[in-house]
Write a structure and sequence with these properties.
Helix content: 25-40%
Largest sheet: 9 strands, mixed
Strand content: 15-25%
Distance between the termini: 73 Å
Radius of gyration: 30 Å
Shape: elongated
Structural class: alpha+beta
Strand order of the largest sheet: 2-6-7-10-1-11-12-13-14
Length: 476
């Protein structure tokens, strides 16, 4: 039996601010537990929240980048529930007046481009972090009060591939514009995915199951695909799909039951009495929008038109903002952007992976990489010789000095190369006879012997040309 799959995603994304949403306590990942918290975060008697101006700015930027209509009237509400990670007994959020509505993001799939609608973006504060041990639980309130935006999609996705592409598109966009660091492994971007299936063409949504706190792009696709198959098996066995909250088990690759839902929880929302409505001026919003950083999609199009890079290379380059930014710097020193891209995506990336570091932490000088490319383009060294200089380059050394130290300067003297070509041919008459008899591999053999004789320093292009010329003379 065939089914229609419906997927919606809610993303909680921590905003990149110095202080929390409603207090002056610092925001920081990895600090000692309970050292970045104050009385406002803990909801002590008599304290009053104060809205973080920078957090509102970041929310406006997110709405702009994702094509949402911005509501200039900022209002907050209380979401009331009692849980150990919520010290105040309520969360300040925007239930009734989200800062943005009706946007979209464009994704790329194996079936082409597709728009995924975004229902809303609203601001709120994060909860504390819980650590569940065997006999007790621990609470770290450092995260409590951290500014968040929640991005709620429409149910426009229909496969694990589309879900992955949607989250990756959001991650790229928010990271490029500096709204968030989007480090899913650290919890600064967390995804809750709703999945339901129904008989194909029925037009009725099936019972949805929510998969909580997915923390990597690949886990999203795996969890969604597993959940689709799990629900199919239940329906085909004549069983019902119950409304559940589940989690993804990374080891088994399965979704696991957390709790069943009997209905919607009544959080008894009401307007936050301690924060008066705030009217954002049109000038302030326009100033933010006029000074937005370049979006990843715009950068992709520029790389295609300015540098003539392939879609494949652009996709890889853009996926790593630090690498893309580094590429931008290198192109200030070289006109050979394609070569710069190739070096960054191949040998440089391989070195970074081997040494478990990143391009922004390495000692690679952009001017030195541009100089290496120029040395290859000018015929001073070959590509093979250049690869032997990668370690020197990554240590911050000048490639010309390193090449001289290692004796890697390319031989481009026609007289010297001609002498080696003749020596090799004189020593290998059978290769000349093979060429005369139509065996083209003889050319490669002779070229290889000349390169060996020159210890790899002869200009390969010149060697190939001169070998062909000399062979033509000897068989005429």
């Amino acid at each position: 039996m065939e089914y229609d799959v419906t997927i919606g995603i809610e993303i909680h994304c921590q905003l990149k601010t110095d202080t929390k949403m409603f207090s002056g306590a610092p925001t920081s990942f990895g600090r000692k537990a309970n050292t970045c918290v104050n009385e406002i975060d803990l909801g002590m008697p008599g304290v009053l929240p104060e809205v973080n101006r920078e957090a509102v700015k970041k929310a406006v930027m997110a709405c702009t980048a994702l094509h949402l209509d911005i509501d200039p009237l900022v209002k907050f509400d209380r979401k009331n529930y009692y849980y150990s990670d919520l010290p105040k007994g309520f969360q300040i959020t925007q239930q009734f007046h989200p800062i943005g509505r009706n946007g979209y993001v464009e994704i790329e799939t194996s079936e082409g481009k597709k728009k995924i609608r975004i229902n809303r973006i609203h601001m709120e504060e994060d909860t504390a972090k819980q650590f569940h041990l065997t006999k007790f639980s621990l609470l770290d309130f450092n995260r409590a009060g951290t500014p968040l935006i929640e991005i709620v999609s429409e149910p426009d996705m229909h496969s694990g591939e589309e879900a992955e592409a949607y989250v990756e598109a959001l991650r790229q966009t928010l990271y490029y514009i500096g709204v968030s660091d989007c480090r899913m492994e650290e919890g600064s971007m967390r995804c809750d995915t709703n999945v339901s299936i129904s008989p194909k063409g029925s037009g009725v949504l099936g019972t949805k199951n929510e998969i909580k706190n997915l923390n990597s792009i690949s886990h999203i696709g795996k969890a969604v695909n597993y959940e689709i198959e799990r629900q199919k098996k239940l329906l085909e066995a004549g069983e019902k799909v119950l409304q559940e909250t589940r989690r993804f088990d990374e080891k088994s690759g399965e979704t696991v039951l957390m709790r069943r839902k009997e209905g919607n929880v009544d959080y008894k929302f009401f307007p936050e009495p301690n924060i008066f409505p705030i009217r954002l001026s049109d000038e302030w919003i326009k100033d933010i929008q006029d000074n937005m950083p370049e979006l990843p999609q715009a950068r992709k199009e520029r790389y295609r038109s300015e540098y003539g890079l392939s879609d494949h290379d652009i996709s890889i380059l853009i996926s790593n903002k630090e690498m893309s930014d580094y590429f931008e710097t290198v192109t200030k020193f070289t006109s050979n952007a394609k070569s710069a891209c190739n070096w960054l995506l191949s040998d440089i990336s391989a070195w970074l992976n081997t040494h478990e570091t990143t391009i922004d932490q390495a000692q690679l000088n952009p001017e030195n990489l541009a100089k290496l490319i120029a040395m290859i383009d000018d015929g001073k060294i070959s590509n093979a010789q250049a690869k032997k200089l990668v370690d020197d380059l990554m240590a911050g050394k000048d490639p010309e000095a390193a090449a001289k130290e290692k004796g890697l300067e390319q031989v481009s003297d026609t007289g010297a190369i001609a002498a080696m070509v003749n020596e090799v041919m004189d020593a290998n008459p059978q290769a000349i006879e093979d060429f005369r008899n139509g065996k083209s591999r003889a050319v490669g053999f002779i070229v290889g012997q000349v390169m060996k004789k020159s210890r790899g320093q002869a200009n390969p292009g010149m060697v190939s040309r001169m070998v062909n010329e000399e062979l033509a003379k000897r068989i005429s």
